[in-house]
User: Fold these one by one.
Assistant:
Number 1:
Amino acid sequence: MEPKLRVENLSVWYQRQPALKHVTLSVEEGEVLALIGPSGCGKSTFLRTLNRLSEEQVGVRVSGSIMLGDLDIQESHVDVTQIRRRVGMVFQAPNPFPFSIFDNVAYGPRLQGVADPGTLRKIVEQSLRQAALWDEVRGKLRRPALALSGGQQQRLCIARALAVNPEVLLMDEPTASLDPLSTAKIEELVGALRGQYTIVMVTHNLRQAARISDRTAFFLDGALVEVGPTRQIFTAPQDNRTEQYLTGRFES
Amino acid sequence: MVTAWIKGLLFTLLALASAVAPTSRHLTIAGATSTLAYLRDTVGGFERSHPGYTVSLAGGGSVAGLVEVSRGRADVGVSDIPPRAEWTSGVHLQVMPLGRLPILFVAHPGTGVHNLTTTELRAVLDGRTRSWKSVGGRPVPIVVMTRPLASGALSVVDREMMGGRRITSQAIVQLSNGATLAGVRETPGAVGFVESGVVPRGVTVLGVGGRHFSPKRGAEWPWYAEPSLYVRPEAPSIVHDLVRYLGSHPNRTRYGIYGSAS
Amino acid sequence: MSTPSVTDRMPRRTAGLAAGLFALVGIILVASLAAGAWPMLGAPRAAANLIGAVWDPLRGRYGVAPFVVGTAAVTLTALVIAVPIALGVAVSIVHQVGALGRGGILRVLTVLTAVPSVIFGWWGLQMVVPWVRAHVGGPGFSLLAAGIVLALMILPTLSLFFAQALSKVPNTLKEGSAALGATPDQTLLRVELPFAMPALVNGLVVGLARALGETMAVQMVVGGQTAIPAGLAAPGATLTTQIFTDMTAFPPGTAGHAVLDIMALLLLAAMYVLVRTAERWGSR
């Protein structure tokens, strides 16, 4: 089967500083891929290149190709807003807009011109159900999103991303700022979304990667060291550096 | 240290206060701006003949001049308007007239009008006549320019020209003689009045009721302000000397102040 | 040392003293205005006289309506012109120009806020009055000319406040919006402006207060007509310019002075209402 995402020879520079060097990597449709590695290894940069969010920053240069299906998203004629509708993103810290719960989830569909209240209601309910938040917020959709707890806010952000019906979901350490209980809920949610969405997730939490990912990629100093089935990476890594990292010999 | 600072502050305040209060060494004149040029150029002669004395001038308008001198905040007040009790708080002031300062009626050069009867001019100023065409000029709307209520020139025009009518409330109010002149010069259709002993440039000086202004016969022009100097009777003799000097200086005609009002 | 020494407590005491002094000065100001206004307020049929449209103090007619209308018209004109431009400037500062250009523009704007109003008035007299005369008609001295001059005067202040407000929008929100497929314009309209709204309103009130209170620049171009203005191209007067124009004609104690005090109180009350409204808006 064709991979969902095929990244070839991807390099990224901030000003003149290389952040990512010649990364080649494929993501299969419907799988959960975990990106691990010490801080500053380039895994977040890699993630933000997949929806071209990295180019919002000044002085970023990207080379190589990223195929989403048969579309090379790096090509200049490609509409970046279209890519971002197909590749959703959830950030490290929950970042709900200072609107109501409803308006947060309806934000993406409204951008695409959906204005019919009935349709919007349906999309919002479905997205909140998918993000396992519906039961907690039903009947309170007009309340401000910022009144929710941190974990709820992060699930709201997932619902907001799902509302535009993306094919790929990028998650940048989505549980980094959450308590263990909220973390467990998010992990459970990722498990439920597996198969429906292609998920690429950066995490610092090795156990989390082991628990929920199908495959794991290990980055070091801007390079991809190795990628493989999660069980294999954690039990029998091919590369010596992977093993050193997993056994805690790098500062992370 | 703190007490030293407070002492310093108090000392400064005292010094400032004594500088503001009128003293016998430093004389202040305040009031109407119409004769400011004459006064400014003439006080130098007084200072030279009275070594050790300095004279400073401040504007503020006729009413302010009367208020300041009657409250003792200025040694001499200059005013085009006779004092009223509500301004002087009942203080009786001695007066020294400077002479007559002609008030000219001026119009934008593009109106096509050079002469008006008194009745016509009155109707222009009070807003009944709205176009220069009605008084024999071009079809340009009339724009009246006047001065603030505190202006001496306005009070003369009100009393001597308007015959009991008021200048239109749609008139543009210019804050000074110079601003009126500039406004009339630049605004098509404008008409106004200025205190001037010479023929101002760039505007049409209107002949009124068959009379034409000429600086040579300035004393015969029937509309004039009578700028006068006011002092408190109990003022030191040096102040009376100053007023006599300014009120009798032959220089006055050079500044458009004609004859003697008495 | 367990208890702070006298010198340690000096800064706070000085600050407290300053604040107290400031409040006292404010109270004295309002009290003296009220005391000055009192004789007029107690006069027979004072309200009817004051609300009237005829200003002829020498005959006892003290209608302030022309100046209330003038103030409202000039201020609104200024805001209608200045707010969209200031927003545009602020957006370009925050989004379009690089860090280097941004610093330069901010510095220029800061300098412009310090330009004395008489300069703006002078510029208005040279440029705006003739422009209005040529393109809109009338004598040129007009509410419109005053509004344009004021707009230019408050533009730097408004731009700075708006830019400040927009730059406070967290990057995470902008990225969140972009990640959902929003164009930069959509992010600006749907996330940045709503988020910055309280701060934008705050800036608007500062600009509005400056416009309401400005005297010199307005006086030089507004015309000073004391009748209710017939339109934007007609001359008029504002509360502040009329106080300024007639101040010297009415020394304290006269009825005219009492009316000027009332006009000043009116202006203070308007400012107070404005600030309170903005606070309520901002805390929503």
Number 2:
Amino acid sequence: MELFLQFISNTGFFLAEYRNFVMIGIGSLFVYLAIAKEYEPLLLLPIGFGVLIGNIPFFKGFGLGIYEQNSVLHYLYFGVTTGVYPSIVFLGLGAMTDFSSLLARPKLMLLGAAAQTGIWATLLSAMALGFTSKEAASIAIIGGADGPTSIFLTAKLAPHLIGPIAIAAYSYMALIPIIQPPIMRLLTSREERLIRMPEPRPVSKKEVMIFPVVGLFLCCFLAPASIPLLGPFFFGNIMKESGVVDRLANTARTAVIDTATIFLGLTVGASTQGDVFLNAKSVGIFLLGAVAFSIATASGVIFAKIMNLFMKEKINPLLGAAGVSAVPGSAREVHLVGLKEDPTNFLLMHAMACNSSGVIGSAVCAGILWSFMM
Amino acid sequence: MYGLEAISANNGWAMAITGPLIVMSGLTILALIISQLHKIVAIFDKKPDSATQSAVEDKISVPKILPDNILETADIYQALIDKLEQPFELKALYRIAEQNDFPHPILTVGRFRVAGILVPEGEGLFVWKR
């Protein structure tokens, strides 16, 4: 009987507390949204299931939890805390990205820079709310709308916040269809949304091959702290564009990035143990994340409108919203909002140019923030 | 510490001004470089060889502005379609249209699809029904 009672006292049913159930509810919601609504399933399913795994109560000291030394989850989490997974994700991302639309219309790169304003505005807000400068920088990068970049910078500056920041970043990326369109409509007139973008010029093979080299040198000389992200990113891209290592490029954009995404999502989800995750700081991070993402979207659109004041050939200001680096979600949303106004106005290709510029912009911002904190 | 005092103590104002300036100037320089990249590449490119030369000579002449009537536009495109084997992929049509400097091929092909002149045959292949 004593053995039975001892066993019972070690079960999850006995050890559970309300915070575990709250988190299990959140994890279940993520899994539901991924499967039933197909909201960013590649992100929400691993994270949601990770939240479920991480919030099963267990007997401390058995080496089971993600924060316990020598546990399997702890070893898998190593890739997050050291920034290994984000770098691998960037390698695959580079091997997927086609820069030709950006090369055909380089002005759109400025929208990728402008949309990073959300990061800097949130940095100030987080500091004002009492977060330390390192915590504020980690929270601010959510405004870049780039999950791997957020995780990478947080792992370097405020590792204790990886869980809430990663969850906030990925949640807002999944909520792009809900967050971005109202901001886009609010800041643009119908006439502006109807602006047609001229067809881009054809881009030569040599240009797309030279770009990763030029981009690497310029961005990484400017912000060397962005090397762990932009180095693999441009390497992946040159593998794709050179065409001489198709096998490697193909592996990078399929098996490699998929493996990293699985373990990144699962372990980030599992790191949200109720007792660690549910506190006032996490609530603050979620609120600031929403502010960061909204300011980023708005600043991209407003900057596009400002550019139109000086340019003969107007650009559709909706494209500014794709300056955040949520690839390809925000580009797709810009395209859909444009299509609602005019079903023959195809903005996707142009929005992808802003989106890929946003990826570079947010990684450079991460590098700058990191170097500011050194 | 909270509010403006916390921002000042953490050097936040300087970061929030310097950071975006660095990002904007970095990406502006990158944009400037890539806007000139095609000119630099053209300088280093060799002169067109005889095969390229003959391809240029084989170009189909096309008006700068295509007619509003989709059937008249289809007549102009017929010369391109004759060069393709049916059924064909849309990217092949785009490529050949771009090589011959046809204006706005993506929009035009979209109009052909709406007008039922380009009909999908499945598996990404299309046939020209004119």
